[in-house]
Amino acid sequence: MHDRLMRIWPRGHCRVRLSRDAVSVLRVSGARKATSVLVERPLPAFAGAAHDMLSAPITAALDAAGGARVPVHATIDDDLVRYFVVTPPANGGRMQDLRAAAGVRFHVLYGEPLADWHLAADWQCAAPFLACAVSRRLHAALQVAVEAQRASLASVTPNFVAAWNRSRRRLGADAWLATLGEHALTLGLVTDAKKPRLAAVRTLPLPKAIPSMAWLRDQLSRAALLDNVAAPSVLHIHGRPLDEWQPDPASSADVGLSVQWHPQR
To answer: When comparing pLDDT for 3 and 121, which is higher?
Structure first.
């Protein structure tokens, strides 16, 4: 009888967020009037941690939030992800050709093979496409933690990819997309006004002190110069708004740049 009731009544889901320092779990109930539960746990230093050391606090957070036997949707902060744009090989329409091109591009940019990384991409044969890689240790730790709760890992999405999927169709001409985390700013350099596409994605470490608007303008100009694209007139940022990054109408340096903030989901 209990199992039958569990099938009838919706159980909700969990939203997991993984950062370099912590894991947070938001338990969303399927019942309308139920209160969501938020649990946070620190993560060990990522560099030297085996996947079982990483999975333990994730498991504990899921357990404390009541995450047993529910779908789990995970978001990974951008400083734990490696982004890169891949140009598909000429006359190479097979998946193995695209994967080989992604492997070569990853090695050129990061100086190591893809063996220790879990790869995902928006595979395209006729146009450059975005690829991203997450440490296999982290991906395995997440899977182990979810399985320990007899839950299902419904999705794993890097933060910038989630923002791009929500915003790409609403981006106008001369607009770039960005995500702001605790430790990094990720810039999506957008080109082609008729059908916006990503020319490059760059993740920049943030200074310890909150950087100024001048710092942000410098990063935009430098990124545009490196990738030979026009600097944006509009920057859409997904993340916690910063007062320091509000353009000053009285400053001539801020003329021509509009910063638009979007709440983090």
So the answer is: 121
pLDDT tens-digit profile of 45-56?
Answer: 877 788 889 999
Burial class (CB in 10 A: 0-12, 13-18, 19+), 28: middle
Contact present, 162 and 120 (Cβ < 8 Å): no
Residue 226 in tokens: 């490196």
Q: Establish whether domains 2-78+136-158 and 171-262 are of one fold.
A: yes
- Class level of CATH domain 2-78+136-158: alpha beta
pTM: 0.89
d(CA 200, CA 202): 7
Q: For the sheet with 197-205, list strands across it.
A: 197-205, 184-191, 175-180, 234-238, 258-262
Q: Under CATH, to which class is 171-262 assigned?
A: alpha beta
Give residues with Cβ within 8 angstroms of 243, minimum separation 6.
none
Please report where in the chains the tokens 């990063």 appear, as a residue. 219
